[in-house]
Amino acid sequence: MRAFVEVDLKAIAKNIKWIKRGTKAEILAVVKADAYGHGLIPVAKTALKAGATWLGVALLEEALLLRKAKIKAPLIAWLTPPGEDLVAAIKNDIQLAVPSVAHLKLIEAAGKKAKRTPKVHIEVDTGMTRGGLLSEWPEFLKVISKSKVDVIGFWSHFARADEPGQSSNTAQEKLFNKRLLELMNVGVIPQYIHFANSAATLTIPAVHNQIVRVGIAMYGLSPDVVHMGSSKDLGLTPAMTVKAVVHLVKDVPKGSPVGYGATEKTKSDTKLAIISMGYSDGIPRPTSNAAGVFVGGKRAPIIGRVSMDQFVVDLGKNSRVKAGDIATVIGGKGYSIDEWASAAGTINYEIVTRIASRVPRIYS
Ligand SMILES: *Cc1c(COP(=O)(O)O)cnc(C)c1O
Question: Which of 213, 222, 348 is the pocket-test mutation for ligand 1 (most atoms within 8 Å of CB)?
């Protein structure tokens, strides 16, 4: 195996238990995007065993995969654009988000076809200006109480919960409560109110309500290293480590141009290692010098541009690393997920979710 992802399911269980200790709410484990790259089914099973009682995904096909794996926990799919097979969703007891009157109509029609009452979660836009009901709200209030759906939940999403103390968080909370009252005033009483993502779960207990929707924290990562601190600061254990086999090691003289575009040259006589992963595996391309691998007991930084299937690291002249050795590429003893994110000018979410499916996952 030229490269692989080690997923520490015990770390995921530990993180769930840790989060559970800080809330009275039920935990909805967010397992969209192949469980943030960690593997949908193993992670979903682990999360439920560790105390999560709900699962959440973005797409209907992700929800259907969970049902196919005989996972019976309550499950929400919150991103179902027109054209999705809502009949299949309802028949498989997948709960759906309602972000508009049009979506409500489509869900009702599908319920009629499926001969079952659809279970829905009303999604309101409280300031993120992405999903959820906004200007249509008054019109929605007129139709919801007469509609043929079972309103299980009422929810919204924070735009800046990862910046504790941000005034927009309180503004969102206020509007959320107002919308909820308006809904109850037309006689619709949802059983489950949910608002908190990982950041709000960790920092705003007042918005935990009945369910918290936990994604990134379950994978042991900080929602925002700048405003909230590292995984360690938050008591979380990262679950993903990416490793690769060293493909080739060679001695190179000072001044050798490395890689496409010859963007870098060796600064002295040195040994280089070619690592068998590239940007098609999810190794971010713009990381030259700023990230690298851990091999032979030390760090070796990337030199030159990352290619599609390989990149080059500088081992130093006296390295004893040889072809076939295993390099830790991301996480573990290597450059952390957060270091890779910073090197690539992105966030840890993007690093883990973009590790390609061609890199096998190994579970422990
Ligand atoms: C992705 C997502 C979450 C989880 O967010 P984290 O920051 O990873 O905790 C929660 N709710 C919704 C609607 C999401 O799309």
Answer: 213
Q: Candidates 126, 197, 219: which one to mutate for ligand 1, based on the most atoms within 8 Å of Cβ?
A: 197
pLDDT per position as a tens digit, 227-254: 999 999 999 999 999 999 999 999 999 9
What number of CA atoms fall less than 13 Å from residue 80's CA on the CB side? 34
> What's the rounded mean pLDDT across residues 80-91?
98
pLDDT at 288: 86
How far CA 59 is from CA of 30, 95, 97, in Å, comes to 12, 11, 11
Amino acid of residue 179: R
Find the 315 Cα to ligand 1 centroid distance in Å: 39
In the structure, what pLDDT confidence band is assigned to residue 289 with cuts at 50, 70 and 90? Answer: confident
* 25 Cα–ligand 1 center, Å: 16
Q: Quote the CATH superfamily of domain 240-363.
A: Lyase, Ornithine Decarboxylase; Chain A, domain 1 (2.40.37.10)
pLDDT one-digit tens code per residue, 35-56: 999 999 999 999 999 999 999 9
Ligand 1 atom at shortest distance from the alpha carbon of 162: 7
pLDDT the model gives residue 209: 98
Give the architecture (CATH level 2) of 9-221: Alpha-Beta Barrel (3.20)
Q: Pick from 195, 160, 163, 161: which is nearest to 177 by CA? A: 195
Annotation says 260 is catalytic: yes
Amino acid present at 313? V
Instruction: Ligand 1, residue 36: give the atom nearest the CA.
Output: 8
> Domain extents for the chain?
9-221, 240-363
213 in contact with ligand 1, CB cutoff 6 A: yes
Tell if the pTM clears 0.85, that is, is over it. Answer: yes
Q: How far is CA 250 from CA 261, 266, 292, in A?
A: 20, 13, 17
198 lines ligand 1 (CB under 6 A): yes
Calpha distance 251→336 (Å, rounded): 28
- How much of the chain, in percent, has pLDDT values that exceed 70? 100
105 part of the active site: no
